[in-house]
Amino acid sequence: MHAYRTHTCGELRQSHVGKSVKVSGWLHRRRDHGGVMFIDLRDHYGLTQIVFNPGSPGFPIVERLRTESVITVEGSVVARDEGLINPNLATGEVEVVAGEVTVQSEAAELPLPVFGEPDYPEDIRLTHRYLDLRRETLHANMVLRAQVIASIRNRMVGQGFTEYQTPILTASSPEGARDFLVPSRLHPGEFYALPQAPQQFKQLLMVSGFDRYFQIAACFRDEDARADRSPGEFYQLDIEMSFVTQEDVFQAIEPVMHGVFAEFADWQGKGRTVPDGPFPRIPYAEAMAKYGSDKPDLRNPIELADVSDFFKDDSKTGFSIFAKIIAGGGRVIAIPAPKATAEKSRKFFDEMDKWAKKEMQAPGLGYARLKEADGGGVDSQDPVLKNFEADHLAAMLKQLGLGAGDGIFFSAGKKADAYKLAGAARNKIGADLDLIEKDVFRFCWVVDFPMYEYDEDAKKVDFSHNPFSMPQGGMDVLEAADTDEKLLAINAYQYDIICNGIELSSGAIRNHRPDLMLKAFEKAGYGADVVEAEFGGMLNAFRYGAPPHGGIAPGVDRIVMLLADAENIRDVTLFPMNGQARDLMMQAPSPVSDEQLRDLSIRLAPMVKS
Q: Running DSSP on this structure, what letter comes out for residue 225?
């Protein structure tokens, strides 16, 4: 017989009844029933119930052990009585009657419980992460993560991609976030940087003649923590393809994303679905107009509407506040709230206004409750619509598709501010009214992002997001853009993939022509000397023949978060840092010795008080 186990703790079934077995694991839970002791023995694979009868040689040994001690039990498999079968446990039809017990490792008093899923202080959980990972939910999440990554790899290979590894020690690059720097011992005073993303390397792979590259890439950015982003490091499915259009990228990536989500949609019996068919393509301008966001959650049926034209003439509305905002160049955006008047009290509407002021730092959120008018039709006694002319109100409600029993909220101000508040309100109203479609993953592509935007602080046009995207129209449209208005009208071959309102990735068809790249930067006010200094390596490579290419990099952590239905990225990461970017378990970052600093030719400067 094997030294530790003949079977795992999740393996025993009715077919094993009568067999002598050996199982090893952690003492998960202990129960004493009138002298007969039951324990649940746990390993990576599951739980097995062990029975210790009075007088059994292992009884006094296990009786004194703390939970989470590691033991090996020899015994025989017996069927449970029919009334004692546990249908929620894979091994629930059998149990092991214990004979010999060997203690492999005794557990000290636990700093946090492993049995059950109680809330516990985060600092204790992260300091003792190895214990936290024994808990059922977290343990299952990590297994899911491994399975998702394996599925992604298989699907990428099936799509004709090849995995290559790019460097971890590289040069600092202006990616938009702070670099993690690594001092060089061999080159005193000089530093490597950990890659914020393999962006330049994967494009250089295309220049090198490779095609259809992918990598499960570790990326490093010195950023603050968020619920959907770890401080320090994260993983992405990094992809690049040569000789492709934007549509080619979509055709290659959609089957991977759809396939992975469909494979794990019913994980742990959650019963979720992924609709068939191509992911909807939504232009950026349409996404902002309908949803107030470039990350639209398509499970929410609410669509925004610009109703500024209805409020321009306050002689028809009796509401001058919005008319003045519109006269000053602002907009009024309506957020429909179906059935809100019929199903909610006035408190719901007032609370939304308070939310806008407190959470969004907005002046407020206007509202109107729609009711049947005394003489027929629909009206509202709330200030925004109270004095509307009947025909004027009917025309607006027809456009919005609203009637008696519904509600409307209004966001007014500068266009960008009005849409930002309206988009956030749409999400909250959809959730509060229980309108969000359940148990489904709805994907979309957001396309046609603006190449440039106006920087209010610098009072100039600058790149809106990715300066290396190919402008739609190429050199012709850049040369023809002799005004800011024309420049701001240029779109890029840039796209985001969104699932349930969460951005999984941005991608683009790259600008692979040096002359076109220099022109694009020139239009944003950057001279050739700046481009050569910052991106000379890639630019020089392009001068020796670069194929048209494009790619994308969906975030692995966010994919697993969605599939695990987790609220925080730490719940799908093995050994995460806390919100202050500290690894409490390994006590990193930490001071280093003077000898280590001397090897690196580094002297620490005194801390400067801010």
A: -
Strand partners, 367: 409
Residue 523, judged by CB atoms within 10 A of its CB (0-12, 13-18, 19+), counts as buried
pLDDT digits (tens, 9 = 90+) for 454-498: 998 888 999 998 899 999 999 999 999 999 999 999 999 999 999
Distances (CA, A) of 200 to 145, 147, 191, 402: 27, 29, 18, 51
State the virtual CA torsion across 376, 380, 386, 392 in degrees, nearest 10: -60
What is the spatial distance between Cα 493 and Cα 472, in angstroms, rounded to a whole number? 6
CA dihedral defined by 393, 397, 400, 404, rounded to 10 degrees?
140
DSSP letters spanning 426-486 = HHHHHHHTT-SPPSB--EEEEE--BSEEEETTTTEEEESS-TTBPBTTHHHHHHH--SHHH
In b/e form, how buried is each residue of 408-437, taking b as 16+ CB within 10 angstroms?
bbbbbbeeebbbbbbbbbbbbbbebbebbe
Per-residue pLDDT tens digits for 265-291: 999 999 999 999 999 999 999 999 999
* Rounded-to-integer distance, Cα 522 and Cα 534, Å: 14
From first CA to last CA, the distance across the chain in angstroms is: 67
* Phi, psi angle pair for 105, to nearest 5°: -165, 125
Q: Which amino acid is at 541?
A: A
